[in-house]
Every structure is written in structure tokens, then in C-alpha cells.
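Entry 14. Structure prediction run on the chain below.
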Amino acid sequence: MYQTDPPLSPKEVLPTMYDLPSEYPEDSGLPDEFHLFQPQLLRETFCPPNYPAEEVFVATDLNLYYDLRHTLWYKRPDWFAAVGVSRLYEQQNLRLSYVIWQEGVAPFVVVELLSPGTEKEDLGQTLREINQPPTKWEVYERILRVPYYIVFDRYTDKLQAFQLVADRYSELDLSTSRVWMPGVELGLGVWQGSYQQIERLWLRWYDASGNWLPTPLEKLERESQRANRLAAQLRELGVNPDEST
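Output returned:
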């Protein structure tokens, strides 16, 4: 590469998301329904009150490139969120992938949904093979230094949470199946309820008062219920709310 005068900025000479593959043919097939619905619920309820919406990026099953020395190495978290970074790449484009040396901001929280084939790696129980990329655990803990790493087992409904303390993950005591994250003023917990017309235990976000954050559909339903209650009260007072004034 020829030296320029003045030197080009790293963003101009290093590979960007446009230069790196966003998917590989040898990747495993499409995720099962739980791996579709659960990340969607996390996305719909992740609304940090201390960050504007345009400074929150949430991704599901997106390539996360983390090592400039090995630009084709990536991990593909089931769900992750980064805060303090533009919702759009360079304020204008939807992302093809998340390239850490271009973004400059590591994810704040990563969620992995356990599968029988990935359980050991997700929980840091596998060793790195010679001349092979590091494991997920190593990448999240030692390279990206993600503050919170969450693991949820859909088969046992067990939630595990790890917080970065100094340079290592420390498992949190989750006696209430909830973990509070002061940096985003939100908590993540296990919720019993119906989502996508499926009743089960789900992961979802809650606020400082311990209230589960509503999805857009739930917000609409609540507004409709309020309007119906108001209309009923007006009718009791002899006012027809359906008549135009």
C-alpha cells in the first residue's frame, strides 16, 4: 500500500462492512422459531431511557467482526445491543455487519440462546484449537470486553448472567431471574406470558420500577383500552363520544 501525504484515516484504508462478507454458504441453516421470536421480543422492549433511539443499535444473528489482524474472523451473536453508536452506519445505511474497528464501540450486552450443539462454547467450556479463531467466550470477555454476557437455555428456562469485573467474567447471583444493568437503566429478566400467541417463559426488558417494558403492539392495545374506558365514562355522563362536534 502506498503512503499518502497526508496519511489516510483508518476508516479509509481498513476494510469496512462493505468489504467483508455478511454471510457464508457453509453457515448452518435458518434458526428455529424460538431463535426468531425471542430476539424480536428483546429488540421490541430494549429502550434505554438514558440514550436517544438514534444512538442505540440492536442486532440479531449479524456478523460481528472483532479482530483487525484477522479481518475474516467473526462471531454471530443471537442478539446484541450497542449504545452510544449511530443507529445507522455513518448515519445513513442499514448495517450488513458490525465491524468493531470501524464502529469504535463494542456491544454493551450480548445474549446467546443455548442450543445442544453450541452450549459448551457459549458457556466457555471449550478450549481454543491451535490456529483457529478464539471461542465466543474469549471474544466477548477478552477482546471486545462486553460488560454483560447473558445465556438463556430455552429447554430448562435457566438464565445465566456474567458481568465483566476487571478482566474476567463473574457470574451474577440471579435468585430472582433478573439482572439490572445501570449503564442502560434497564434490567433483563425471565417473564411468563404470551408473545406471538405462544405462552412460555421469555426474556424481556424491564424498567427501574420493575415493570416489563411493552412491545409496540402492547402499547397500541393499552391505548385502545384507555380510549374505550374514556368513551364508556362519557356515555355514563350522557355524552356520545361518537358524535362529531
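The chain has six helices and twelve strands.
Filed with the rest of this week's runs.
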